[in-house]
Amino acid sequence: MRKVVRGFYAVAYSVKLCKPNVICAYPITPQTEISENLAEMYANGELENCKYITAESEFEAASILVGASATGARTFTATCSQGLILMSEVLINAAGMRLPIVIVNTNRALSAPLSIWNDLQDSMLLRDSGIIQIYVEDNQEVHEMIPQAYKIAESTMFPTMICMDGFKLTHAYEPIDLLDQETVDGFLPPYEPPIKLSIDEPLTFGAYAPPHCYMEFRYKMHKDMLNAKNKIEDVFKEWGEIRRDWGGLIEFKEGKTVLVSLGSLVGTMKEVAKEMGLGYLKVRTYRPFPYDEIREALKDCDNVVVFDRAVSFGYEGVLTIDIRNALYGESPNVYSFIVGLGGRDVPKEVMEDCVSKVLSGRAERYRFEGLKDFEEVTY
Amino acid sequence: MFFGKGHSACYGCPLPIAVRNVLEALDGRCFVVNPTGCLEVTSSQYGRSAWGVPYIHSTFENAPSVASGISYALEVLGRENEGYVVVFAGDGATADIGVGYLSSMLHRNDNVLYICLDNEAYQNTGNQQSSQTFLGASTTTTPAGRVIPGKTLRRKDMIAFALAHGTPYVATSSIAFPRDLRRKAKRAVEFVGSKYIHVHCPCPTGWHFDPSKTVEVARLAYETALFPIVEFEYGRLVRVKKIKRRKPVEEYLKVQGRFRHLFKHPEGGRIISELQRIANENAMRFGLD
Amino acid sequence: MRISLGAVSRPLESLNDKTGTWAVMVPRIDRERCIGCGECYMFCPDCCIEMVQEDRKRYAVVDYDYCKGCGICSEVCPANAIEMVEKVIE
User: What is the CATH number of the domain that holds B223?
Assistant: First the structure.
């Protein structure tokens, strides 16, 4: 069924089809309407075997899901920005406890100064948390990614976060090929937890680990996260067979100069690449990081141009750091352009300008692109 | 066995006394949620768990929310008859860092028995004050100095807090009276919705008294009316543990190292009379005499 | 060493920790005096007192493998049947 819907609905409708048992969220712009849509479905009795709760903070929302997930429930939450970092203590804990909570993050800038608009600083901050991160390009992709995220989470036992750009995707109307229940049921079996809280088998969850075993748990987590790459690829492949092939951990088109980005910026990037005859690389799975795939794809090109929407203050663009690392010892020049922070528009012209700087040898190692002239004052 | 031998709690620790009696009263049909704290670190080391019932620890502040999550999951998965969701939380987790989440759980009236094991400070990290620390107590963050006579604030009233949320069952108990605690745990689970029991747990290590005196110190807190033992159902005071011959607060204070300074500090007399006033207020408010 | 998923731990493995090694003093229960009331059982923080029924007599028995020797049982015993004595290490 093809329908013109907003990003929120594309998410909520897909979540409904995945039959979660406990949904818990706290309103925050630009996520709110995802939970509003789910609340409406709940009020209308459209969510079977499901409890919907509005928590009193994101921290609480995540905590409720820890309890529910550990008891064997399929869970969902959506958040962003200040909300994501508020729940980060719990999410990091859930990652260590290996609870397959699915999160949709509607990427939004961090305060201060306060901004409700889009960039990727929030989810990039959780890069090292043990949460699987998948970035989507448009609303069709997020709609189809949700059942896949559940399958990934439940087969790897890691919290899995889908990152979609706030406003740019959440508020956009797009024609969406809506999934049907039969397709999702055929793809996503009911959740069978390998371990759960139960009276019959009284396990201790959340034990603490002294120095004699902590490191082994963290090593296992790392190893399982690396192995998750194969599982994610399998899930993507399976989805490709029953529905639509969106590619693997990365989507790549080769060229002498290759543009790299993730999220909704990829749409513009592909357009620019096409018009200027360049290659592009879309990072779909950011953690686990597709190191080999990216290295293999980019090692023989001349220039790699990364469009970053998150900054590691005192260093450079966050994605760039990873791309540079993947290309260590190889010859391509890597250029970082930090663009679109706090909702600053990134039109084609900005990207084209970046590319021409690179091609004419005027580009620096990294650069904030699209800054206005300003005068620095104390107040 | 619901709570095992071999846990690493200090000599004379009151916490296992409370835990074991509650678990036995409920026949071990409990999903235990336990925030970070003394009980957690002494019972949940990997490979050395002392728990014979399903147990979860997540973070310091989120036990009420985790408990809510368990109760929702049991409900939607059709497992609500499997057992009770029981939180054992310290006073710091309950009244300080996690108070917002407790408020939220009580507000939704989730089907959880919340038990605060009150040892009046962060004892796990070595006796730093919490909002449950008594006025005048010397802790490592409110030390009795030449000028300041220990803690200068009074306790946060967690009973009033729980009642303010319309919680169906609210009670206090003490490890001095395990039969009272057992009865209250059983009574509590007869109520659908949130249940809050605040249990007084004197800590020999942090309060500086001999480990063999844990029960005696707990009994003195009750006998001086500094820790009243009361029971509310649907907001109505239904029962109090009357005190036969109420003792002056000094009897309670003098057996503990944390109050020793009050008997020689220039401000000590004022603090002691304020504590006596609080005890009198408790006795009057709940009709303890 | 077993490394489980999410550090989930098995129940009651604390039984491997014989905390009786902490004890300096241990309780000695006078079976004649013991009235089998179970106070010590209820108050024992180390969960190491068991009530035993033998013919018509019920009395308390201490598991010295775990008793840390806090002395609470001796304090609460209404029959004065528990004495704290120095632990003898063989």
Answer: 3.40.50.970
